[in-house]
Amino acid sequence: LEESTMSAVVDDRPSPEDILAEYKPGSIRNVRLQNFLTYDNVEFQPGPRLNVVVGPNGTGKSTILCAICLGLGGQPPHLGRADDARQFIKHEKDQAIIEIELAPHPGGVVHTFKRVIDRDRGSERGKGGGASTYFVNGKKVNKKSVVELVSGSYHIHIDNLCTFLPQDKVGNFSGFDKQSLLVETEKSLSMNLHLTHEKLIEMEKELSTSGTDVNSLKEELEKLRKEQERIEREKELMEQRATLLEKLDLLEKKRAWLTFDQKREEAKRAKEEREKLKKAKKEADRGLRPLKVKMEEAEAKRGQVQARFKSLENKAKKDRAAYEKHLNQSTRMWDENLDSEMSEYRTIDAHQRNAEKAVNKCKARLAELEKEGNDLPDVKELEAEAKKVHEEMRAYRQKIEADKKKQRTALGRIKDAESERKQSERELDVIKDDKKLRLQRLLGQRKNLKDSYAFVSQNRKMFRRPVWGPIAADVVPNDQLSAKFIEQHVSTATWTSYVVECREDYDLLYREVREKLKVPINIVQVDPKKNGAAPRRVYSDEKFQLLKNEHGFRGYMDEMITASPSVVQALMNRHNIHAVLVGDDAVQNSLDRKDLVNFLCTKEGGGTQNACFFYTNSGVPFRCTTKLSRYSGEVLEEYQQVPDARILKPGTDPSRRTALQERIAQCEATIEELRPGVDEAQGRIDAMTKEGGGLAKRQKEIGKDKQYIKQFRKKVDNAQDKLAEAEENVGQRGH
User: Fold this and answer.
1) Which helix (H) or strand (E) segment is 116 a member of?
2) DSSP symbols for 275-292
3) Which residues, including other chains, have CB under 8 Å from residue 528's CB and lie 6 or more apart?
4) SS3 (DSSP) at 124
C-alpha cells in the first residue's frame, strides 16, 4: 500500500515538458549573469507565473532588473541610474555578460539573447554605445535586430513604463494621467490593441461630427435646387450680355472706319490747297529776284565806303597824338639835362669830402677787425678737436645702437609674451564661466529639459518667488573629485529638477509645462524659511573631529559644493547630502586596519544607524553604503567604484584650463626675466645719450667757431676791398 501511494505521488509531479508548457511566449525561462555589478557568476530560472525577489537592501535585487533590461536591448537611460553601460561591469573586471532565454511561441524557435559589455571598447567620452556586443542563439547581431525581435515577436517594450518600471522612474510613471496610462497599458499588451483603440476614437469623432437626419438633407437639397435655378437665370443673363457685347464691338469697329474715311477726305482737300499756295509763292519769288540782286550790290558798295572812311579817320588821330607826344618829350628832356648838369657841378665838392671820410672809416674798421682776429682760436686746433669729438660720438653711437638692438629684441619678446598672455587670459575668461557652459551642454543633450528651461527663463515674472534649476546648472563643485562624488550620490531625476519655494509656483509650473506643453518636468518644493539654517548632522562635533583627525574624512558632502540655499535644501531633503561624509586615501587605511564601518553605524546614544561615505583608494574614488539587515541585524556593506562625472563635469577640459594658466605664468616669468635687462639697457642708453649730447653740443660749438672765423675772414676781405675802392674814389675826385 505504501509503495502504491508513493508511486502515485511521483506520477502526479509535473514533468519538465509540462513545466515548460506553462511558460507564455516571451516569459523569461533562464537568466545568467557574469561580472555584472555585485554578481560574479550567477544563473537562475524564474517560474512561469509571478516571481518575487526577496532580500535585504544592497543584496542585488535591483541588479537583476537592470540585467533583464540591458539583456533585452534596453539602454542605461531607461534605468535612470547611469548613462554608460560600462558602469555596470563589476569593479576590477574587464567584461560583463548577460544571457536571457525567453519562452518561444508554440512550435517556434527558442531565443537566447546574450549581451557582452567590454570596458575597453567604445569611446571614453561616449555613453558606451560601442562597448556592447549582441548575440541571438550564438549568432552575432546588432542592437536594432535585438530590439525588433523582442518588441515585434514577443511584444516586450522595455521603454514602456507599464512593461518595465525601474525604481528611479517611479516619479515619471506617477506623472501619467488616466488617458496616458491607458495608452501605455494598451501598447504594453498589444500594439494592435492600441491601433484599434485609436481607430475607434477617430471613427467616433467622425460619427459625432458628420451624422445628420433626412429632413436636414432635404432642406439642404431644396437649398441646392434654388441655388441652381438662380445660377441658371444668371447664366441666361450672362449669355445675353455676351451677345450685346459682340454687337457693341462690331459697331465700334464700323464707327472707326467711318471716322477714318472722313478724315482721309479732309486731308486730301488740305493737300490740294497747299499745292496751290506753293505755286503762287514760286511765281512771286520769280518776279522779286532782279530787285533783290540790285539791292545787295548797293549794300556792298555802301559798306566798302564806310570802312575806307573809318580807316582814314583813325590814322589821322594816331598821327596827331604821336606828334604831340614827341613834342612834350623833347621839351622835358632839355629841361632835365640842364638841371642835372647844374646839380652835378654843385655836388663835386661834397663827393670829394665824403670820399675822404669813407677812406678814414674803412681804415678804422680794418684796424678793429685785425685786433679782433688776434683773439680768435686756431683753425687747425679746432679741426683736430672736431675730429676727436666725432670719433668719440661715433663710438657712443655704436654702443647705443648695440644696446638698442638688444633692447628691441628683448622688447619684441616681451611684446610677444604679453600678446600671448592676453590671448590666454581671454580664453581663460571664456572657459571660467563653467556654470554657463555646463548649462548649455545639459540643455543640448536633453530636449525636454531645454523646452522646460526656455519656459522658466521667459516667464519668471509669472512666479511668486524665485525658481531655481535645473539643479545641475546651479551646483558648482569645489573640485572634480567632489563632482564625481555628488553626481554618483544624487539621482539623474534630481539633477534635472527645478526648485520652487511655494505651492502656488509648484502648481503653476506643473500645469504650464507638464499639462499644457506636454513636457515632462521634475519639481522640488522647499521652505525658504529654512534656507541658511544649520543642518542637523548625524555625528556630533567631537565624533566628527575624531573622524577627521584619525580616519581621513574631510567634511560633509554639502560642504563640497556651492549653490543657492534653496538648491542646497532640496539636495539635503532628497538625498541627505548633509549626512554623507567625504574622505581621502586615509579612509581606506581605517577600513583595512580599524573597524570604521561599525564605528560610523553606531549611534552615540546607543543603537545603530545606516551610513554612506565617499573616499579614494590610491586616487580611485569609491562609495560605501551600509544597510541594517532586518533579518540578521548585521550591518551590510556595499562598495562601488565611482565613475567620472558626466553631468557635473567641467564645461571645458580641466587640462585646457591648466595649460592656459601655465602659459600665462610662463609668459609672466618671461616678462619678469627680460624686464630688468631692458631697463638696464635703457639706463646705459640714457647715460651714453647724455654724454653724447655734451659731445654734440661741443661739436656744434666748434662748427659755430669755424663758421664765425670763415665769416670774419670774409669781413676782413670786404673791408680791404672797400678801403681800396675808397682810396681810388679819392684819387679820381682829386683829378
Assistant:
1) strand 111-118
2) HHHHHHHHHHHHHHHHHH
3) 465, 501, 502, 566
4) coil
Residue pair 729/355 in contact by the 8 Å Cβ criterion: yes
- Looking at residue 528, the DSSP 8-state letter turns out to be G
Distance of CA 268 to the CA centre of its chain: 86
What is the three-class DSSP state of 158?
A: coil
Any idea of the CA torsion for 39, 42, 48, 49, to the nearest 10 degrees? Answer: -30
DSSP 583: E
Contact 683, 691 (CB under 8 A): no
Q: Is the dihedral of CA 74, 80, 83, 89 positive or negative?
A: negative
80 backbone φψ class: left, alpha, beta (φ>0; ψ -120 to 50): left
Taking the complete model, does pTM exceed 0.70, yes or no?
no
Asked if residue 23 lies in contact with residue 50, where contact means CB atoms within 8 angstroms, the answer is no
Distance CA 668, CA 659 (A): 14
Name the residue with cell 542646497: 568
Residues 6+ apart with CB under 8 A from 422: none
CA distances from 403 to 115, 216, 333, 687 (A): 74, 109, 82, 12
Residue 444 has which C-alpha cell?
543640448
pLDDT in tens, 407-444: 888 888 888 888 888 888 877 776 556 677 778 888 88
What DSSP string runs through 679-691? HHHHHHHHHHHHH
Segment among 175-189, 392-406, 507-521 with least mean pLDDT: 175-189
Among 395-399, 446-450, 610-614, 668-672, name the one with the lowest average pLDDT.
395-399
Q: Which three cell numbers stand for residue 349?
A: 665838392
Residue-level length of the chain: 735
Long-range contacts of 7-14 (CB under 8 A, 24+ apart): none
Q: What is the C-alpha separation between 98 and 113, in angstroms, rounded?
A: 8
> In the structure, what pLDDT confidence band is assigned to residue 98 with cuts at 50, 70 and 90?
very high
Q: In this structure, are residues 681 and 403 in contact, taking their beta carbons and an 8 Å threshold?
A: yes
**CA–CA separation, 503 and 122 (whole Å):** 45
Q: Using CA atoms, how far apart are residues 259 and 150, in angstroms rounded to an integer?
A: 94
